[in-house]
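Bumping with the actual sequence this time:
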Amino acid sequence: MSNQGQGPLLAQPLRRPSAGRIGAHAGLFLLGPVVALAGALVQAAWFPGGLLLALAGAAGLFLGGAYATGGRGGAVAPVAGWIVTVILLTTARPEGDFLFGAGAGSYLFLLGGMALAVICATLGAGRQPRGGPARLGK
């Protein structure tokens, strides 16, 4: 499907994403909490190696999602699930229990994961218009 003669890509009408794309983003959103919970447990158990492993797992999910779906939305979906889960894990329960301690490792996991989320969403492959390998506008 070529874009020639139809005007700029941003001037095109929006189309509903396919069911496969919606399913892929939903699956990536659900993988975000899994990686967040696993990372929260691993980073505290084997510091500093566990912290590096937890951050590498999060970066792998974020960047892998972007490349798997072919767009930055593939990185944003697991990031949204990851951030919601991490924020919920930091709150104290009425019993006084909490998953994150007030240590340097916990803060590095939180801030490092958020920095990786921004980096991976930026580095992720942006969606390109379909067509030949020639320059756009020719």
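The tokens above came from a reply further down the thread. The chain has a mean pLDDT of 80.
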